[in-house]
Amino acid sequence: MYTQALDTHGKEPLPAATGESPAQAQRFQARVDAEDKIEPKDWMPDAYRQTLIRQISQHAHSEIVGMLPEGNWITRAPSLRRKAVLIAKVQDEGGHGMYLYSAAETLGISRAQMFEQLLSGTAKYSSIFNYPTLTWADIGAIGWLVDGAAIMNQIPICRCSYGPYARAMVRICKEESFHQRQGFEIMLTLAQGSGAQRAMAQDALNRWWWPSIMMFGPSDADSRHTAQSMRWKIKRFSNDELRQKFVDITVPQAQFLGLRDPRPGAALGSWHAALSDRPDRLGASFMRCSRATDPATANALEARRAADEAGHWVREAAAAHARKQRTRAPQAA
């Protein structure tokens, strides 16, 4: 769902090619340039494989962690309809994580390894989910802005050069479009409501605007991976290109809602200048929130570890049941 961390790197160095010849690399690049899909059993450079593992696993982690803020609001949603819609959305996000873990497994990494990397803090996820959801309007802002940024990031991945990732993204993007509409509808209802409800919607926009801008990752000048990912057609657009498209699309939506620009003293029509307005703020906030040492990130990881430990007995029971079924099958035959 969320690709904020896809162009950042952890403690690991950039992957180096191991053993491939220049001729192999040229043939591989020719296939990518010809828009051929690379499949799991095809030869691929090790750097390509490792880049995909990093990107898909971080994407999957973001889907799983992304369920938590909204899951906390299911019981507090203002109506039965809102509860049902939110339950469906949270269920979708869990399914997206499973699709993506399966896609990553085709590259030779196990799901257990990916979980361990998440819980140990060595794998990143979109840190926007560490921000608190203070009001019901925050759920609307997440759907409108955060899922809107996710769609902007993810639609090009439907044409990614790696087949399993591209195919998984087709269904994910269809469901994400529902999530974005759900969030916008919440904001529209609040914007047409009482003065207190309009103020709630404005406050949510003020707090979620910059985090949603950061979802596109660091600026192109600060990213070590963007150029290579675009050459391999894992990414189709740079971070800054996607960020500007998001700003251009979101401005008319905010105008329709009657909400003000969250930047003090700025005119709504100048939102297109968001990238040049405070680049220092964008870069500093992104790097701070992406670090595992950030308190909010540490708290989120601790919650994931606690959930993993609490569910350990369930996984053990399911494995024991599966073993029992396998032993019974030959006897029944």
Tell me what you see in this structure.
By secondary structure, the chain is mainly α. It has one domain (22-292): Ferritin, core subunit, four-helix bundle (Ferritin, Up-down Bundle), CATH 1.20.1260. Helices cover 66% and strands 0% of the residues. The chain starts with 21 loop residues before the first helix and ends with a helix. The relative contact order is 0.12.
Keywords:
disordered N terminus; 333 residues; mainly alpha; 13 helices
Structure at a glance:
By secondary structure, the protein is mostly helical. It contains 13 helices and no strands.
Q: State the CATH topology.
A: Ferritin
Strand content: under 5%
Note the main sheet.
Answer: none
Assign the CATH architecture.
Up-down Bundle
Shape: globular
- The helical percent reads 55-70%
Fourth-tier CATH superfamily name: Ferritin, core subunit, four-helix bundle
Quaternary organization: single chain
Number of helices: 13
State the low-pLDDT regions, or none: 1-17, 267-272, 287-292
Mean pLDDT rating: 83
What's the structural blueprint in terms of helices and strands?
Blueprint: H1 22-33, H2 46-71, H3 80-105, H4 111-120, H5 136-154, H6 163-191, H7 195-214, H8 226-231, H9 239-257, H10 274-277, H11 279-290, H12 295-310, H13 312-332
Helix pairs in contact: 2-3, 3-6, 5-6, 5-7, 5-9, 7-11
